[in-house]
Write a structure and sequence with these properties.
two-stranded parallel ribbon, 3 helices
């Protein structure tokens, strides 16, 4: 039996939830789906420039969980950029941090 995911805490949901390559109709594109917590991990690490331990504390997860979330986001973004896929941001297991 799979253990249920713990909620990850995020500061806010992004306003923009879709990115796609220019001049290619959406109907012709494959999609990669990033979760809200993956976006939060990217923000904390690369925009806020937090160390892994600090970022994990803000999301209320372990360092290894934070690293898995960040790595997953990096793989998805790399796939989209290299293979010309659209990026959709939605879903995940998260709660808004106050």
């Amino acid at each position: 039996m799979v253990r249920p995911k713990k909620c990850r805490f995020v500061t806010s949901a992004p306003e923009t939830t879709y990115f796609k390559p220019r001049a290619i109709p959406l109907s012709e594109l494959e999609e990669v789906c990033l979760t809200i917590e993956e976006i939060e991990a990217l923000k904390l690490k690369f925009l806020d420039k937090l160390e892994q331990e600090q970022a994990a504390k803000k999301m209320k997860v372990s360092r290894t969980t934070f690293w898995r979330v960040l790595s997953s986001a990096g793989e998805k973004i790399s796939d989209a950029l290299i293979n010309g896929k659209a990026i959709k941001i939605e879903g995940g297991t998260y709660k808004m941090r106050r």
